[in-house]
Amino acid sequence: MESIDNALHIGRVPVRAIARAYGTPTYVYDEQRIRANYARVVAAFRAHYPDFRLYYAIKANDNLAIAAIVTGEGAGIDAASVNEILLAKELGLDGERVIFSGNYLSDEDIVLGLESGVTFNLDDPSLLPRVLRFGKPDLISFRVNPGYGRSNVGDFVTNAGPNAKFGVHPDQVLDAYRAARDAGIRRFGVHMMPGSCVTDAAYFPFVTGLLMDIVGKVGVTLGIGFEFVDIGGGLGIPYRPDEMPLDLERAAQAAVEVFRAKIAQYRLAPPRLVLEPGRAIVGDAGWIVGTVHSIKRGYATIVGTDVSFNVLVRPALYGAYHGIRVDGKENGPRARFGLCGQLCENTDYWVRDRELPADIAEGDIIVVENAGAYGYAMSFRYNGRLRPAEVLVNGATHELIRAREGFEDMTRGVRIPARLR
Ligand code: LLP
């Protein structure tokens, strides 16, 4: 997003034009930015390890138009549930272009997952006998919890380490693969998800080394090969103005160096290297365009907007920070304000003290930054406040990619038993 003649633009579209055309709050994505993010991540890894593949973690943003951009560039899909597998199928992806990393799966998940024919990534050894009851997949992967987890967003978002609910304990990995081999499975992969929103480049080679030591020992002991090693997602983006961006090229180079060294050390046949980022592809390519509806000057001065926590839950849920810009008022004097949405809960007072334009006023258009990942995907309905619209910008064009919810969504599927009428 840039300010041109004191007007905020996403791509070459003024945010004011978006607000006029679609109303607010509205999620807006920049197609060119998504393509550039994808290209940069792939280039960073492929430069050092050509047999590299990216699976887009569709949970970050599951609008099919957004996913179609990424899969159109060549990505596979990392699916967390059967319904996410079905989203991948809508885009024509299946088989080994989809990896299913659900956790605590039901029997129904397992059956539908097997039927779908995608790559199964098991979160626990106890899943293997349950899977085998229904069928024998060609290829099995286990999600390893290497004992470390990291996230700039805080402990709630840590996907590995001793406090996480995810993955196979390192001491159980060998037996897990042995059981799979003894059951006649012949093709193997391995997976970890060691963090989310990590901007420390050194972390990626560190955890890759931990995983590869486990992989190496399993490979040598059982005499099995690994077709792929999936080192997860987790590439971070800066949310706060003072945060340093991840040095992606350095992270990729160092992770590949460790990867190659461990392959040599354990004399493994070189596996494909897989990464499954979400945030790094779409996070900084999405914004929320909102409106200031009223300003209260009471105990504090609070700017009331239509960006409520049902629209963007990250601040209320994690204390996460999102930058806020005000259209047309970027260059004047600034003052400190609180800012909130319209819901009847005080977690909706999601900015307590922020420097904003001193002349911010009713009717102003605000833009919330870095909302492309875990934004709309985690939105919900509450207080009769509905999910927003989603719009895709490509250069100077803009198109609706998901309609704003309407009242019909509040009653869809609801039945009032006759005796209550
Ligand atoms: N793979 C698996 C198995 C995952 O669980 C996740 C994210 C990813 C890949 C993609 O991670 P990324 O590259 O986006 O970090 N709602 C939180 C983030 C939760 C991440 C959950 N898993 C947030 O808003 O920060």
Question: Can you offer a commentary on this structure?
Answer:
This protein has 12 helices and 22 strands. The chain is of the alpha/beta class. The protein folds into 2 domains: 2-29 and 283-411, Beta Barrel (Lyase, Ornithine Decarboxylase, Chain A, domain 1); 31-282, TIM Barrel (Alpha-Beta Barrel). The strands form 4 sheets. Strands 4, 15, 16, 17, 18, 19, 20, 21 and 22 form a 9-stranded mixed β-sheet that branches. Strands 5-6-7-8-9-11-13-14 form an 8-stranded parallel β-barrel, surrounded by 5 helices. A 3-stranded antiparallel β-sheet has the order 1-2-3. The radius of gyration is 23 Å and the shape is globular. It starts with a strand and ends in a 10-residue tail after the last helix. Ligand LLP is lined by residues 57, 60, 78, 101, 153, 157, 159, 193, 196-197, 232-235, 276-280, 314, 373-374.
What order do the helices and strands come in, and which of them pair?
Layout: E1 2-4, E2 7-10, E3 13-14, H1 15-22, E4 26-30, H2 31-46, E5 52-57, H3 64-72, E6 76-79, H4 82-90, E7 98-100, H5 107-116, E8 119-122, H6 127-134, E9 139-143, E10 150-151, H7 170-182, E11 187-191, E12 195-196, H8 203-222, E13 228-230, H9 248-265, E14 272-275, H10 279-282, E15 286-297, E16 301-305, H11 314-318, E17 324-326, E18 334-340, E19 351-357, E20 365-368, E21 389-394, E22 397-402, H12 407-411
Parallel strand pairs: 4-21, 5-6, 5-14, 6-7, 7-8, 8-9, 9-11, 10-12, 11-13, 13-14, 16-18
Antiparallel strand pairs: 1-2, 2-3, 4-15, 15-16, 15-20, 17-20, 18-19, 21-22
Helix pairs in contact: 2-9, 7-8, 8-9
Residues 57, 60, 78, 101, 153, 157, 159, 193, 196-197, 232-235, 276-280, 314, 373-374 line the site of ligand LLP.
